[in-house]
Amino acid sequence: MANITIAFYPSQLYLCQIGSKRSFQVSCRSSNKWDVQEELFKETSHLQTSYYNDGFNSTKFGLLVKDVKYALRTQINSTNNLVLVDALQRMGIEHHFQQEIQSILQKEYEQSACFYKYQNHHDISLCFRLLRQEGYHVSADVFKRFKNNDDGTFGLNLSQDVNGLIGLYEASQLGVEGEHILDEVANFSGDHLNACLANSDSCDEARIIKETLKYPYHKSLASCKAKSFINNFKGINGWGRSTLQELANMDYSITKEIHQHELAQVSRWWKSLGLAEELKLLRDQPLKWYTWPMAVLQDPRMSQQRIELAKCISFVYVIDDIFDVYGTIEELTLFTQAVNRWELSATTDLPEYMRSSYKALYNTINSIGYNIYKIYGQNPTQNLRNTWGNLCNAFLKEAKWFASGVVPSTNEYLKNGLVSSGVGTILVHMFYILGLGVNSNIHLEDISSMSSSGAMILRLWDDLGSAKDENQEGKDGSYIECYMKENKDASIELAREHVINLIEDEWKKLNKEHLLLMSPSSRSFSKASLNSARMVPLMYSYDHKQSLPILQEYIKSMLYGDLSM
Fold first, then answer.
1. Engineering a disulfide at 24: which of 56, 189, 224, 418 sits with its beta carbon 3.0 to 4.6 angstroms away?
2. 60 in a domain, yes or no?
3. Domain of life of the organism in this record (predicted)?
4. What global pTM score does this model have?
């Protein structure tokens, strides 16, 4: 039977053994209630470990896992295997079958003409997408076979194949710079899917087309779409519907309680700092901060990694608030100097209201660095502290621009914005928290390009939004403002279109870096970096009420929901 150990880093939370004859029970050492003072979650929540009371049929879970593993190992039809792999990934349960999935994809890759054994557009596109997602270098030239020899356009028969168009559109999202054929595939499939949507008489077909166009799989969080996929899953040639749905529901319930427990720890830690009580204008949003690592590190076993990363993310928000709504330029300069010095004695030079935040940052990051040293044998604290100094330097530069009324050039703004986004700071911490740089061939400088693209996507998405966080009252900048100053004839619509194109370009760069970094030792980091970019639209898609409905729905689904709803 399968054994799942939760919390390797360090192993201090709890152990879930799946496959034993006893019922699954969770023993939470933290309080069963905490305050989540955010828009939809301002009441005290009471965590009840349902499996502790109701019991968990671990034997049933193990048998379901065994059945799926058997199917992955024995399916004769390659297409069925690829469809099954895709289904497992979309349901968010692929972590139980990594060895089997890798074996299937490696076999597909080793067959040099693997694409040509598939006869329809959807199967070829699926094979291409699954291989590229796992870091296999497969050529996009395979899509040239769909073009007419006479004029180089895509065949008209393809325009009527909805499944084929969906497969092509999904595959095109993994393009890198210079792959013009995938740009053509994206434009062709997107245009014809929109036409199919306008003429569709099927509600199910229309729903699938809408979801594909708005949330293509590669650029979306699988966990965000898992509920819909599971509930609408029809099986694979008559097999797997009940098996996979039951397995996915059981796995979801386990994972939900893991996340609830982690959120309780993060909330308790945040409350213990006392910063929200001392600085009333600080955002008090541990739930929102925890949602980042919950989405980015999706393997249930990475419990303590998520908790540590949530602490880092909280300080990005805290420091952002200090710079945006609290400090004068003189005070912010002192704070920046103190962070760069990284000495507790530096607090004597700070204004009173900054001292507690500085001490909390200093102690938390040093503690994280020490934990990494204990587990992996390397002390990254110097590199960690450097990232906070760089972040404050970037925040200070922006503060000086806005205080003096300076609108920087687009290049200046983006160069600084890559740092002030906080993405680089968090990815450096994640790099060490995941144990990279010790017994692997990947080094910190190897992630710089991936970090830059992720930071650019966040910065541009943030600036693309028409609303700001409702708790932010400070002056903030915008790439669009800089762009329109440089291009005086540009309309706001043209500026926004330019930003969208820049985001698409950064995704291509991110895809390229993903292919370069997908070695066994760095796979977890590369996938987490992609997830951070996928999370951005949820965090910055404000509605007219300055709320984040997509994010709120995601949180309710992952922490409080029921897949059978």
1. 56
2. no
3. Eukaryota
4. 0.88
Do 174 and 264 lie in one domain? The reply is no
3-state secondary structure 184-211: HHHHHHHHHHHHHHHHCCCHHHHHHHHH
Q: Give a yes or no: residue 161 inside a domain.
A: yes
The whole domain housing 108 covers 83-236
The pair of structure tokens assigned to 341 is 């010095």
The CATH number linked to 105 is: 1.50.10.130
d(CA 458, CA 510): 13
Do 497 and 392 share a domain, yes or no? yes
Q: What is the 3-state secondary structure (H, E, C) of 164-189?
A: HHHHHHHHHCCCCCCCHHHHHHHHHH
Residue 269 and residue 180 share a domain: no
State whether 175 and 262 are in the same domain: no
Indicate the residue among 211, 236, 261 that finishes a domain: 236
b/e for 30-47, b at 16 or more Cβ within 10 A? beeebbbbbbbbeeebeb
Reading the chain (565 residues) residue by residue, the pLDDT tens digits are 333 333 333 323 333 333 332 222 332 323 222 233 343 333 323 333 333 334 467 889 999 999 999 999 987 677 889 999 999 999 999 999 999 999 999 988 988 656 767 778 888 999 999 999 999 999 999 998 888 766 777 876 777 789 999 999 999 999 999 999 999 999 999 999 999 998 888 888 899 999 999 999 999 999 999 988 999 899 998 889 999 999 999 999 999 999 999 999 999 999 999 999 999 999 999 999 999 999 999 999 999 999 999 999 999 999 999 999 999 999 999 999 999 999 999 899 899 999 999 999 999 999 999 999 999 998 999 999 999 999 999 999 999 999 999 999 999 999 999 999 999 999 999 999 999 987 667 888 889 999 999 999 999 999 987 434 434 343 457 899 999 999 999 999 999 999 999 999 999 999 999 998 888 778 899 999 999 999 999 999 888 888 899 999 999 999 987 654 3
3-state secondary structure of 16: strand
Dist CA 262 CA 246 (whole Å): 25
| Domain finish residue from 236, 270, 288 | 236
The number of domains in the chain is 2
Residues 232 and 338 in one domain: no
